[in-house]
């Protein structure tokens, strides 16, 4: 695990996938710092995938949408696939009502589905510790 990005957003590495999230306090300064840190980490860690969890976002406005699209484009240019996970139904409804399209942004219902889409599979182990 690594220290939080300069904007205070942690970026964790799981194999060749970086996992991070966005919080409601996304302003210009935080967005720039987060974008710089994430793109730097994609390059230095050789990440092939990035999971951005937005389940804590209650509102996605045009600024956040633009930030997600720009992050996705930058990550792709660096060879990484980005999946945005955890969009709440009210957020999806608001985006549609405002006519905001997350062009080029791949989404998943939750973090588990996003990780599975990137090739990660949870091993199911029986409760109680195994056969016996």
UniProtKB/TrEMBL annotation:
Pfam family, one: STAS
Boundaries of every STAS domain copy: 16-118
Stated name of the protein: RsbT antagonist protein RsbS
Species, as recorded: Streptomyces platensis
């Amino acid at each position: 695990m690594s220290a939080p990005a300069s904007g205070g957003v942690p970026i964790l590495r799981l194999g060749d996938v970086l996992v991070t999230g966005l919080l409601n306090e996304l302003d210009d300064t935080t967005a720039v710092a987060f974008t710089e840190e994430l793109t730097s980490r994609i390059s230095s860690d050789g990440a092939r995938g990035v999971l951005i969890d937005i389940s804590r976002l209650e509102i996605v406005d045009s600024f956040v949408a633009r930030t997600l699209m720009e992050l996705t484009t930058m990550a792709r240019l660096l060879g990484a696939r980005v999946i945005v996970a955890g969009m709440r139904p009210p957020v999806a409804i608001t985006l549609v009502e405002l006519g905001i399209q997350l062009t080029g942004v791949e989404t998943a219902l939750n973090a588990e589905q996003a990780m599975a889409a990137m090739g990660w599979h949870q091993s199911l182990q029986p409760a109680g510790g195994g056969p016996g």
